[in-house]
Automatic annotation (TrEMBL):
CDD domains: GntK. It catalyses: D-gluconate + ATP = 6-phospho-D-gluconate + ADP + H(+). This is Gluconokinase. It comes from the Bacteria. Pfam families: SKI. Its EC number is 2.7.1.12. PANTHER family: GLUCONOKINASE-RELATED (PTHR43442:SF3). Transmembrane segments: none annotated. Keywords: ATP-binding, Gluconate utilization, Kinase, Nucleotide-binding, Transferase.
Length: 166
């Protein structure tokens, strides 16, 4: 499972709770950024494709390891563009994206109140500019970010339960 969406949509919060409830391993995709990417974002400079590709490949490696081991897992990754998501999954249809959907107006207060994180609020617009929402040809669950973490996690597990049982 890849919890995706723009900065501040709630990926880390939802993924932590999902992994705990499911008993799955969780990987924070942001931990796999090259230091140069963190420095770039911290300086208020949006990442470009060239910056993201090695990061996406590192996350794809986590997904592939889980696939080889036959183990489920939850990883957070903004996955803003379709070709990023294809790079993450290798176009293998065993990965579900949980897309935390919302508006800049809904997310900005969260980013403004968050402390101790490298991502400046000024980059939120660039995240939406880059965002390509998952299409009908992709395995993705749209979830409104407006609900509580508990409500979102319960809804995701409820909807995916039949898949999780297989
Ligand atoms: N469902 C929610 N309702 C209210 N606040 C939330 C919700 N989910 C997350 N938050 C809060 O919003 C802020 C951003 O959440 P979080 O860090 O999980 O987002 P993120 O998508 O992982 O961000 P980034 O991509 O920048 O790391 C945090 O302060 C978090 O406590
Ligand atoms: O795709 C990107 O521009 C970046 O990866 C950001 O989305 C960060 O990973 C994170 O969301 C901010 O902390």
């Amino acid at each position: 499972m890849v919890v995706m969406g723009v900065s501040g949509c709630g990926k880390s919060s939802i993924a932590q709770s999902l992994a705990a409830k499911l008993g799955w391993e969780m990987v924070e995709g942001d931990q796999l950024h090259p230091p140069a990417n963190i420095a770039r974002m911290s300086a208020g400079i949006p990442l470009e494709d060239a910056d993201r590709l090695p990061w996406l490949d590192a996350i794809a490696g986590v997904v592939e390891d889980w696939r080889i081991q036959g183990r489920p897992g939850v990883v957070t990754c903004s996955s803003l563009k379709k070709h990023y998501r294809e790079r993450l999954t290798g176009r293998i249809k065993d990965v579900c994206f949980v897309y935390l959907a919302g508006t800049e107006e809904q997310i900005m207060p969260r980013l403004s109140m968050r402390t101790g994180h490298f991502m400046p609020t000024t980059l939120l617009r660039s995240q939406f500019d880059a965002l390509e929402e998952p299409g009908e040809d992709e395995i993705a669950l749209y979830v409104s970010l407006e609900a509580s973490v508990e409500e979102i996690v319960s809804a995701v597990i409820r909807v995916l339960k039949p898949l999780l049982a297989s």
